[in-house]
Description:
By secondary structure, this protein is of the alpha+beta class. It folds into two domains: 6-98, CATH 2.40.50.140; 125-171 and 206-449, Bira Bifunctional Protein, Domain 2 (BirA Bifunctional Protein, domain 2). Helices cover 30% and strands 24% of the residues. It is built from 13 helices and 16 strands. It has an eight-stranded mixed β-sheet, with helices on both faces. The protein has a five-stranded mixed barrel with strand order 1-2-3-5-4. A hairpin with a 3-residue loop joins strand 14 and strand 15 (384-391). Helix 4 packs across helix 13. Bound molecules: 4-amino-1,4-dioxobutan-2-aminium adenosine-5'-monophosphate and magnesium ion. Residues 166-167, 207, 209, 230, 239-240, 243, 245, 247, 385-389, 429-431, 433, 435-436 line the site of 4-amino-1,4-dioxobutan-2-aminium adenosine-5'-monophosphate. 4-amino-1,4-dioxobutan-2-aminium adenosine-5'-monophosphate binds at residues 166-167, 207, 209, 230, 239-240, 243, 245, 247, 385-389, 429-431, 433, 435-436.
Amino acid sequence: MKRSKIKSLYAAPPVGQSVNVMGWLKTRRGGKKFSFAEVNDGSTIKNLQIVLDNSRFDEETLKQLTTGACVSITGNLVESVGQGQPIELHAETVTIFGPSDPETYPLQKKAHSLEFMREIAHLRPRSTTFGCILRLRHAMAYGIHRFFHEKGFFYVHTPIITASDCEGAGEMFTVTTLDLAAPPKNKDGQVDFSADFFGRPAHLTVSGQLNAELAALALSDVYTFGPTFRAENSNTTRHLAEFWMIEPEMAFYDLHDNMALAEEMLRFLIRLALEEHYDDLDFLCATYDEELIPRLKSVVESPFERCDYTRAVEILLHSGQSFEFSVEWGADLQSEHERYLVEKHFQKPVIVYNYPKDIKAFYMRQNDDGKTVAAMDVLFPKVGEIIGGSQREERYDKLLERIRQMGLPEENYWWYLDTRRFGSAPHSGFGLGFERLLTFLTGMGNIRDVIPFPRTPGNAEF
Ligand code: 4AD
Ligand code: MG
Protein backbone atom coordinates (compact mmCIF):
# COMPACT_ATOMS: atom_id res chain seq x y z
CA MET A 1 0.00 0.00 0.00
CA LYS A 2 1.18 3.49 -0.83
CA ARG A 3 2.22 5.53 2.17
CA SER A 4 0.17 8.65 2.93
CA LYS A 5 1.65 11.77 4.42
CA ILE A 6 -0.16 12.96 7.51
CA LYS A 7 -0.64 16.41 6.04
CA SER A 8 -2.62 14.96 3.14
CA LEU A 9 -4.79 12.89 5.51
CA TYR A 10 -5.86 16.06 7.28
CA ALA A 11 -6.33 18.00 4.04
CA ALA A 12 -8.80 15.47 2.58
CA PRO A 13 -9.44 12.63 5.05
CA PRO A 14 -10.15 9.31 3.26
CA VAL A 15 -12.48 8.26 6.08
CA GLY A 16 -13.43 4.60 6.05
CA GLN A 17 -10.44 3.62 3.93
CA SER A 18 -7.33 1.69 4.72
CA VAL A 19 -4.20 3.86 4.84
CA ASN A 20 -0.54 3.51 5.70
CA VAL A 21 1.48 6.12 7.59
CA MET A 22 5.12 6.20 8.58
CA GLY A 23 6.70 8.42 11.18
CA TRP A 24 8.06 8.87 14.69
CA LEU A 25 6.10 8.39 17.87
CA LYS A 26 5.61 11.51 19.93
CA THR A 27 3.83 9.79 22.78
CA ARG A 28 2.23 6.54 23.71
CA ARG A 29 -0.33 5.92 26.43
CA GLY A 30 -1.29 2.39 27.25
CA GLY A 31 -4.54 1.18 28.76
CA LYS A 32 -5.40 -2.42 29.53
CA LYS A 33 -7.37 -3.04 26.36
CA PHE A 34 -6.36 -0.15 24.12
CA SER A 35 -3.23 1.89 23.55
CA PHE A 36 -3.01 5.33 22.02
CA ALA A 37 -0.03 6.73 20.17
CA GLU A 38 0.67 10.03 18.47
CA VAL A 39 2.70 9.77 15.31
CA ASN A 40 4.32 12.62 13.39
CA ASP A 41 6.03 12.47 10.01
CA GLY A 42 7.13 16.09 9.75
CA SER A 43 4.80 16.94 6.87
CA THR A 44 2.74 19.05 9.28
CA ILE A 45 2.84 20.06 12.91
CA LYS A 46 -0.22 17.84 13.44
CA ASN A 47 0.19 14.35 14.82
CA LEU A 48 -2.05 11.49 13.84
CA GLN A 49 -3.66 9.59 16.68
CA ILE A 50 -3.26 5.84 16.44
CA VAL A 51 -5.59 3.55 18.35
CA LEU A 52 -4.36 0.01 19.00
CA ASP A 53 -6.45 -2.86 20.23
CA ASN A 54 -3.82 -4.53 22.45
CA SER A 55 -5.20 -8.02 21.86
CA ARG A 56 -4.25 -7.82 18.17
CA PHE A 57 -0.52 -7.26 18.75
CA ASP A 58 2.21 -9.29 20.35
CA GLU A 59 3.81 -8.05 23.51
CA GLU A 60 7.18 -7.26 21.93
CA THR A 61 5.60 -4.91 19.37
CA LEU A 62 3.58 -3.11 22.04
CA LYS A 63 6.69 -2.78 24.18
CA GLN A 64 8.62 -1.15 21.37
CA LEU A 65 6.01 1.52 20.76
CA THR A 66 7.79 4.19 22.77
CA THR A 67 8.48 7.88 22.31
CA GLY A 68 11.01 8.34 19.51
CA ALA A 69 10.46 4.98 17.82
CA CYS A 70 10.04 4.98 14.04
CA VAL A 71 7.05 3.02 12.81
CA SER A 72 4.94 2.09 9.84
CA ILE A 73 1.26 1.63 10.62
CA THR A 74 -1.56 0.46 8.42
CA GLY A 75 -5.18 0.57 9.41
CA ASN A 76 -8.57 2.09 8.96
CA LEU A 77 -8.91 5.87 9.06
CA VAL A 78 -11.99 6.92 11.00
CA GLU A 79 -13.57 10.05 12.36
CA SER A 80 -12.46 10.40 15.91
CA VAL A 81 -15.00 10.28 18.67
CA GLY A 82 -12.48 11.70 21.13
CA GLN A 83 -11.81 15.37 21.73
CA GLY A 84 -8.86 17.13 20.17
CA GLN A 85 -8.57 15.50 16.76
CA PRO A 86 -10.96 15.04 13.83
CA ILE A 87 -9.52 11.72 12.63
CA GLU A 88 -7.66 8.72 13.99
CA LEU A 89 -6.16 5.54 12.66
CA HIS A 90 -7.27 2.13 13.95
CA ALA A 91 -4.13 0.09 13.61
CA GLU A 92 -4.17 -3.29 11.90
CA THR A 93 -0.50 -3.88 11.22
CA VAL A 94 2.49 -2.27 12.88
CA THR A 95 6.11 -2.47 11.75
CA ILE A 96 8.85 -1.07 13.95
CA PHE A 97 11.58 0.38 11.71
CA GLY A 98 13.69 1.72 14.55
CA PRO A 99 13.02 1.24 18.24
CA SER A 100 14.11 3.95 20.65
CA ASP A 101 15.17 3.15 24.18
CA PRO A 102 12.86 5.17 26.42
CA GLU A 103 15.50 5.27 29.17
CA THR A 104 18.11 7.04 27.07
CA TYR A 105 16.23 8.87 24.27
CA PRO A 106 17.03 12.53 24.99
CA LEU A 107 13.86 14.05 23.56
CA GLN A 108 11.20 12.94 25.95
CA LYS A 109 7.77 14.46 25.93
CA LYS A 110 8.53 17.17 28.47
CA ALA A 111 9.51 20.56 27.11
CA HIS A 112 13.25 21.03 26.84
CA SER A 113 15.10 24.31 26.97
CA LEU A 114 16.35 25.71 23.68
CA GLU A 115 19.88 25.63 25.14
CA PHE A 116 19.63 21.92 25.80
CA MET A 117 18.28 21.30 22.32
CA ARG A 118 21.32 23.06 20.82
CA GLU A 119 23.43 20.36 22.45
CA ILE A 120 21.40 17.69 20.68
CA ALA A 121 21.22 19.42 17.30
CA HIS A 122 21.30 15.99 15.65
CA LEU A 123 17.93 15.10 17.19
CA ARG A 124 16.24 18.46 17.56
CA PRO A 125 14.63 18.37 14.09
CA ARG A 126 12.29 15.81 15.67
CA SER A 127 11.00 18.27 18.24
CA THR A 128 7.78 20.15 17.55
CA THR A 129 9.58 23.49 17.78
CA PHE A 130 12.25 22.65 15.23
CA GLY A 131 9.75 20.98 12.96
CA CYS A 132 7.98 24.35 12.80
CA ILE A 133 11.21 26.24 12.26
CA LEU A 134 12.43 23.94 9.51
CA ARG A 135 9.11 24.08 7.67
CA LEU A 136 9.09 27.88 7.93
CA ARG A 137 12.68 28.00 6.74
CA HIS A 138 11.73 26.05 3.66
CA ALA A 139 8.66 28.23 3.12
CA MET A 140 10.77 31.38 3.16
CA ALA A 141 13.38 29.95 0.78
CA TYR A 142 10.64 28.92 -1.60
CA GLY A 143 8.89 32.30 -1.19
CA ILE A 144 12.08 34.14 -2.05
CA HIS A 145 12.49 32.25 -5.32
CA ARG A 146 8.81 32.75 -6.08
CA PHE A 147 8.95 36.49 -5.37
CA PHE A 148 11.90 37.08 -7.64
CA HIS A 149 10.78 34.69 -10.35
CA GLU A 150 7.41 36.41 -10.60
CA LYS A 151 9.21 39.75 -10.97
CA GLY A 152 11.40 38.50 -13.81
CA PHE A 153 14.62 38.21 -11.82
CA PHE A 154 17.15 35.51 -12.62
CA TYR A 155 18.82 33.37 -9.98
CA VAL A 156 22.58 33.42 -10.46
CA HIS A 157 25.03 31.17 -8.65
CA THR A 158 27.92 33.16 -7.32
CA PRO A 159 31.10 31.44 -6.14
CA ILE A 160 31.71 30.39 -2.57
CA ILE A 161 35.48 30.43 -2.93
CA THR A 162 36.81 33.86 -3.79
CA ALA A 163 39.99 35.89 -3.86
CA SER A 164 38.36 39.25 -3.11
CA ASP A 165 36.88 40.65 0.07
CA CYS A 166 33.50 42.16 -0.81
CA GLU A 167 33.00 44.03 2.43
CA GLY A 168 36.68 44.91 2.82
CA ALA A 169 36.45 44.10 6.50
CA GLY A 170 39.04 41.31 6.49
CA GLU A 171 36.77 38.84 8.24
CA MET A 172 37.35 35.94 5.90
CA PHE A 173 38.16 32.26 6.36
CA THR A 174 41.13 31.09 4.33
CA VAL A 175 40.79 28.17 1.94
CA THR A 176 44.05 26.34 1.46
CA THR A 177 45.61 22.98 0.71
CA LEU A 178 49.04 24.04 1.99
CA ASP A 179 50.58 22.01 4.76
CA LEU A 180 49.87 24.24 7.74
CA ALA A 181 52.66 22.66 9.77
CA ALA A 182 55.28 23.52 7.14
CA PRO A 183 53.94 25.96 4.55
CA PRO A 184 56.23 27.06 1.73
CA LYS A 185 57.78 30.45 2.44
CA ASN A 186 59.02 33.19 0.14
CA LYS A 187 62.32 34.99 0.65
CA ASP A 188 60.68 37.47 3.08
CA GLY A 189 59.67 34.56 5.27
CA GLN A 190 55.97 34.87 4.41
CA VAL A 191 53.72 32.04 3.31
CA ASP A 192 54.08 31.55 -0.42
CA PHE A 193 50.53 31.30 -1.69
CA SER A 194 51.70 30.93 -5.29
CA ALA A 195 52.28 27.30 -4.33
CA ASP A 196 48.73 26.98 -3.01
CA PHE A 197 45.81 25.32 -4.83
CA PHE A 198 44.59 28.50 -6.53
CA GLY A 199 48.02 30.03 -6.88
CA ARG A 200 46.99 32.88 -4.59
CA PRO A 201 45.30 33.43 -1.24
CA ALA A 202 41.67 32.31 -1.42
CA HIS A 203 38.80 32.64 1.02
CA LEU A 204 35.21 31.69 1.69
CA THR A 205 33.03 34.50 0.44
CA VAL A 206 31.46 37.05 2.79
CA SER A 207 28.95 38.09 0.12
CA GLY A 208 28.00 37.21 -3.45
CA GLN A 209 27.41 40.83 -4.34
CA LEU A 210 30.40 41.62 -6.53
CA ASN A 211 29.67 38.67 -8.79
CA ALA A 212 25.94 39.40 -8.75
CA GLU A 213 26.74 42.88 -10.03
CA LEU A 214 28.49 41.39 -13.04
CA ALA A 215 25.35 39.46 -13.91
CA ALA A 216 23.02 42.43 -13.29
CA LEU A 217 25.05 44.43 -15.78
CA ALA A 218 23.89 41.98 -18.42
CA LEU A 219 20.55 40.48 -17.30
CA SER A 220 19.25 43.62 -15.52
CA ASP A 221 17.56 41.94 -12.56
CA VAL A 222 19.25 39.06 -10.76
CA TYR A 223 19.63 37.62 -7.30
CA THR A 224 21.93 35.21 -5.58
CA PHE A 225 20.97 33.13 -2.54
CA GLY A 226 23.70 31.11 -0.93
CA PRO A 227 25.83 30.53 2.12
CA THR A 228 28.22 33.25 3.23
CA PHE A 229 30.94 33.11 5.84
CA ARG A 230 32.31 35.58 8.34
CA ALA A 231 35.19 34.99 10.68
CA GLU A 232 34.10 37.72 13.06
CA ASN A 233 34.51 36.64 16.62
CA SER A 234 31.16 37.91 17.80
CA ASN A 235 29.35 35.61 20.13
CA THR A 236 25.94 37.25 19.97
CA THR A 237 22.37 36.14 19.45
CA ARG A 238 22.43 37.77 15.98
CA HIS A 239 25.67 36.49 14.43
CA LEU A 240 26.65 33.24 12.77
CA ALA A 241 29.97 32.36 11.17
CA GLU A 242 28.04 30.65 8.36
CA PHE A 243 24.75 32.17 7.30
CA TRP A 244 22.64 32.40 4.17
CA MET A 245 22.12 35.62 2.31
CA ILE A 246 19.70 36.72 -0.40
CA GLU A 247 21.28 39.35 -2.61
CA PRO A 248 19.29 40.93 -5.42
CA GLU A 249 21.11 43.27 -7.78
CA MET A 250 19.26 45.50 -10.21
CA ALA A 251 20.47 47.61 -13.11
CA PHE A 252 18.79 51.02 -13.42
CA TYR A 253 17.57 51.08 -9.80
CA ASP A 254 18.45 54.03 -7.62
CA LEU A 255 18.54 53.94 -3.83
CA HIS A 256 14.82 54.66 -3.51
CA ASP A 257 13.86 51.90 -5.94
CA ASN A 258 16.13 49.64 -3.92
CA MET A 259 14.38 50.48 -0.65
CA ALA A 260 10.98 49.96 -2.23
CA LEU A 261 11.97 46.48 -3.44
CA ALA A 262 13.35 45.52 -0.02
CA GLU A 263 10.11 46.57 1.64
CA GLU A 264 7.94 44.80 -0.91
CA MET A 265 9.92 41.58 -0.55
CA LEU A 266 9.82 41.51 3.25
CA ARG A 267 6.10 42.16 3.34
CA PHE A 268 5.48 39.53 0.68
CA LEU A 269 7.40 36.93 2.69
CA ILE A 270 5.75 37.64 6.00
CA ARG A 271 2.31 37.71 4.44
CA LEU A 272 3.07 34.37 2.78
CA ALA A 273 4.01 32.85 6.13
CA LEU A 274 0.83 34.15 7.78
CA GLU A 275 -1.37 32.93 4.96
CA GLU A 276 0.16 29.54 4.29
CA HIS A 277 1.95 28.50 7.48
CA TYR A 278 -0.28 29.72 10.24
CA ASP A 279 -0.20 26.39 12.14
CA ASP A 280 3.52 26.60 12.72
CA LEU A 281 3.47 30.29 13.64
CA ASP A 282 0.58 29.72 15.99
CA PHE A 283 2.51 27.08 17.92
CA LEU A 284 5.58 29.30 18.24
CA CYS A 285 3.42 32.23 19.30
CA ALA A 286 1.66 30.20 21.98
CA THR A 287 4.85 28.57 23.23
CA TYR A 288 7.50 31.28 23.11
CA ASP A 289 6.26 34.75 22.31
CA GLU A 290 2.64 35.82 22.50
CA GLU A 291 3.42 39.04 20.64
CA LEU A 292 4.71 37.13 17.62
CA ILE A 293 1.66 37.05 15.37
CA PRO A 294 0.53 40.61 16.22
CA ARG A 295 4.08 41.77 15.42
CA LEU A 296 4.11 39.97 12.08
CA LYS A 297 0.74 41.41 11.19
CA SER A 298 1.82 44.92 12.04
CA VAL A 299 4.78 44.62 9.67
CA VAL A 300 2.53 43.47 6.86
CA GLU A 301 0.05 46.26 7.49
CA SER A 302 2.11 49.40 8.11
CA PRO A 303 4.48 50.96 5.56
CA PHE A 304 8.11 51.11 6.66
CA GLU A 305 9.50 54.44 7.80
CA ARG A 306 12.27 56.08 5.73
CA CYS A 307 14.73 58.07 7.81
CA ASP A 308 18.01 59.52 6.69
CA TYR A 309 21.01 58.82 8.89
CA THR A 310 21.48 62.46 9.89
CA ARG A 311 17.88 62.66 11.09
CA ALA A 312 18.24 59.33 12.90
CA VAL A 313 21.20 60.75 14.82
CA GLU A 314 19.15 63.86 15.74
CA ILE A 315 16.33 61.66 17.01
CA LEU A 316 18.73 59.60 19.11
CA LEU A 317 20.45 62.68 20.53
CA HIS A 318 17.09 64.11 21.59
CA SER A 319 15.71 60.83 22.87
CA GLY A 320 16.57 61.43 26.52
CA GLN A 321 17.78 57.79 26.65
CA SER A 322 21.09 56.77 28.14
CA PHE A 323 22.72 54.41 25.67
CA GLU A 324 25.72 52.26 26.38
CA PHE A 325 27.40 53.48 23.16
CA SER A 326 27.38 57.23 22.62
CA VAL A 327 25.67 58.72 19.60
CA GLU A 328 27.47 61.11 17.32
CA TRP A 329 27.33 61.91 13.64
CA GLY A 330 29.87 59.71 11.90
CA ALA A 331 29.64 56.72 14.23
CA ASP A 332 27.86 53.55 13.23
CA LEU A 333 24.48 52.87 14.81
CA GLN A 334 24.66 50.18 17.45
CA SER A 335 21.94 47.65 17.89
CA GLU A 336 20.55 49.51 20.94
CA HIS A 337 20.19 52.64 18.77
CA GLU A 338 18.54 50.71 15.98
CA ARG A 339 16.09 49.14 18.36
CA TYR A 340 15.24 52.48 19.94
CA LEU A 341 14.37 53.91 16.52
CA VAL A 342 12.25 50.91 15.57
CA GLU A 343 10.63 49.86 18.81
CA LYS A 344 10.25 53.16 20.67
CA HIS A 345 10.39 56.08 18.29
CA PHE A 346 8.72 54.94 15.07
CA GLN A 347 7.18 51.68 16.32
CA LYS A 348 7.53 50.07 12.93
CA PRO A 349 10.31 48.93 10.61
CA VAL A 350 12.64 51.73 9.60
CA ILE A 351 14.93 52.12 6.62
CA VAL A 352 17.88 54.31 7.52
CA TYR A 353 19.73 55.66 4.46
CA ASN A 354 22.58 57.96 3.42
CA TYR A 355 25.15 56.86 5.98
CA PRO A 356 28.55 58.52 6.48
CA LYS A 357 30.91 57.15 3.87
CA ASP A 358 33.67 56.33 6.34
CA ILE A 359 31.68 53.59 8.05
CA LYS A 360 30.50 51.90 4.86
CA ALA A 361 31.98 49.66 2.16
CA PHE A 362 34.01 50.91 -0.80
CA TYR A 363 31.42 50.07 -3.46
CA MET A 364 28.66 52.38 -2.22
CA ARG A 365 27.78 55.37 -4.37
CA GLN A 366 29.10 58.68 -3.07
CA ASN A 367 26.53 61.39 -2.57
CA ASP A 368 27.11 64.96 -3.75
CA ASP A 369 27.62 66.22 -0.18
CA GLY A 370 31.02 64.53 -0.13
CA LYS A 371 30.27 63.02 3.30
CA THR A 372 27.66 60.34 2.80
CA VAL A 373 27.00 57.36 0.57
CA ALA A 374 23.74 56.00 -0.86
CA ALA A 375 23.55 53.17 1.67
CA MET A 376 20.47 51.77 3.34
CA ASP A 377 19.82 49.44 6.26
CA VAL A 378 16.41 47.97 6.99
CA LEU A 379 15.85 47.78 10.74
CA PHE A 380 13.26 45.48 12.26
CA PRO A 381 11.76 45.12 15.72
CA LYS A 382 13.64 42.64 17.96
CA VAL A 383 16.37 41.83 15.42
CA GLY A 384 17.69 45.25 14.40
CA GLU A 385 19.46 45.20 11.02
CA ILE A 386 17.87 42.63 8.72
CA ILE A 387 19.01 44.08 5.37
CA GLY A 388 22.04 46.09 4.30
CA GLY A 389 22.31 47.53 0.80
CA SER A 390 23.14 50.49 -1.38
CA GLN A 391 23.20 52.11 -4.73
CA ARG A 392 26.56 51.10 -6.22
CA GLU A 393 29.29 53.46 -7.34
CA GLU A 394 29.05 53.19 -11.12
CA ARG A 395 31.61 55.96 -11.90
CA TYR A 396 35.02 54.45 -12.63
CA ASP A 397 37.11 57.30 -11.23
CA LYS A 398 35.16 57.60 -8.00
CA LEU A 399 35.25 53.86 -7.43
CA LEU A 400 38.97 53.59 -8.03
CA GLU A 401 39.59 56.55 -5.74
CA ARG A 402 37.62 54.84 -2.95
CA ILE A 403 39.48 51.53 -3.36
CA ARG A 404 42.76 53.41 -3.04
CA GLN A 405 41.65 55.58 -0.13
CA MET A 406 40.57 52.51 1.79
CA GLY A 407 43.85 50.75 1.14
CA LEU A 408 42.29 47.77 -0.63
CA PRO A 409 44.42 45.65 -2.98
CA GLU A 410 43.50 47.30 -6.27
CA GLU A 411 44.85 44.42 -8.37
CA ASN A 412 42.19 42.07 -6.93
CA TYR A 413 39.35 44.24 -8.24
CA TRP A 414 40.41 44.81 -11.86
CA TRP A 415 37.51 42.79 -13.22
CA TYR A 416 35.02 44.66 -11.02
CA LEU A 417 36.47 47.98 -12.18
CA ASP A 418 36.21 46.79 -15.79
CA THR A 419 32.42 46.83 -15.58
CA ARG A 420 32.71 50.58 -14.91
CA ARG A 421 34.87 50.98 -17.99
CA PHE A 422 32.60 49.15 -20.41
CA GLY A 423 28.90 50.00 -20.40
CA SER A 424 28.63 51.00 -16.78
CA ALA A 425 25.09 51.59 -15.52
CA PRO A 426 23.44 52.98 -12.43
CA HIS A 427 22.50 50.00 -10.30
CA SER A 428 21.62 48.95 -6.76
CA GLY A 429 21.20 45.93 -4.56
CA PHE A 430 20.96 44.64 -1.05
CA GLY A 431 21.58 41.64 1.17
CA LEU A 432 18.93 40.06 3.36
CA GLY A 433 20.30 37.89 6.15
CA PHE A 434 18.16 34.75 5.84
CA GLU A 435 18.55 33.77 9.48
CA ARG A 436 17.80 37.32 10.66
CA LEU A 437 14.56 37.09 8.70
CA LEU A 438 13.80 33.74 10.33
CA THR A 439 14.60 35.04 13.80
CA PHE A 440 12.04 37.74 13.23
CA LEU A 441 9.50 35.39 11.69
CA THR A 442 9.72 32.67 14.33
CA GLY A 443 10.22 34.95 17.36
CA MET A 444 13.27 32.91 18.39
CA GLY A 445 15.58 35.03 20.52
CA ASN A 446 18.77 33.36 19.30
CA ILE A 447 19.88 33.04 15.68
CA ARG A 448 21.37 29.61 16.49
CA ASP A 449 17.85 28.27 16.74
CA VAL A 450 16.78 29.09 13.18
CA ILE A 451 19.51 27.23 11.27
CA PRO A 452 19.71 23.44 11.56
CA PHE A 453 23.39 23.26 12.40
CA PRO A 454 24.78 26.59 13.60
CA ARG A 455 28.41 27.56 13.07
CA THR A 456 29.69 29.97 15.70
CA PRO A 457 33.08 30.50 17.33
CA GLY A 458 34.11 27.18 18.86
CA ASN A 459 31.09 25.33 17.54
CA ALA A 460 31.01 23.06 14.48
CA GLU A 461 30.04 19.77 16.08
CA PHE A 462 27.12 18.49 14.05
O1 4AD B 1 25.24 44.45 5.76
P1 4AD B 1 26.00 43.32 5.14
O2 4AD B 1 27.38 43.07 5.61
O3 4AD B 1 25.95 43.61 3.57
C1 4AD B 1 26.57 42.89 2.61
O4 4AD B 1 27.20 41.88 2.75
C2 4AD B 1 26.30 43.42 1.22
N1 4AD B 1 27.35 42.91 0.33
C3 4AD B 1 24.92 42.98 0.78
C4 4AD B 1 24.56 43.49 -0.59
O5 4AD B 1 24.38 44.69 -0.74
N2 4AD B 1 24.42 42.62 -1.56
O6 4AD B 1 25.18 41.97 5.32
C5 4AD B 1 23.86 41.87 4.82
C6 4AD B 1 22.96 41.23 5.85
C7 4AD B 1 22.84 41.98 7.17
O7 4AD B 1 21.91 43.03 7.08
C8 4AD B 1 22.40 40.88 8.11
O8 4AD B 1 21.01 40.66 7.97
C9 4AD B 1 23.12 39.68 7.56
O9 4AD B 1 23.46 39.95 6.22
N3 4AD B 1 24.34 39.36 8.31
C10 4AD B 1 24.47 38.33 9.17
N4 4AD B 1 23.60 37.39 9.56
C11 4AD B 1 24.03 36.47 10.45
N5 4AD B 1 25.28 36.43 10.94
C12 4AD B 1 26.21 37.36 10.57
N6 4AD B 1 27.45 37.29 11.05
C13 4AD B 1 25.81 38.37 9.65
N7 4AD B 1 26.43 39.42 9.06
C14 4AD B 1 25.54 40.00 8.27
MG1 MG C 1 25.38 45.79 7.31
